[in-house]
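Example record

One chain of 85 residues, shown exactly as stored in the release files.
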Amino acid sequence: TKSFTVTLLLQLVRDGVLTLDETIDRYITGVPNGHAITLAQLAGNQSGLVDYSATPEFLNLLVADFLRVWTEQELVAFSFAKVPP
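Predicted structure tokens for this chain:
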């Protein structure tokens, strides 16, 4: 899904809808350091946001119920709860 998302992002850049230098807080509020994270950094996995799948909180819940279906908002919340390094 990452390559699909980045392809769509680059098509929007090509069409002049947005630029890679724009920050994510223009489109999504509440992202830690969103004012400093560019779309280019997100596309290149260089945003500094914490990987939710490596947080102890997520791993504990996953082990307790590995069949649970997660929403995107639930997964992002694990990442946003941590201060980026």
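Notes: The helical segments are 2-14, 39-43, 56-64, 72-80.
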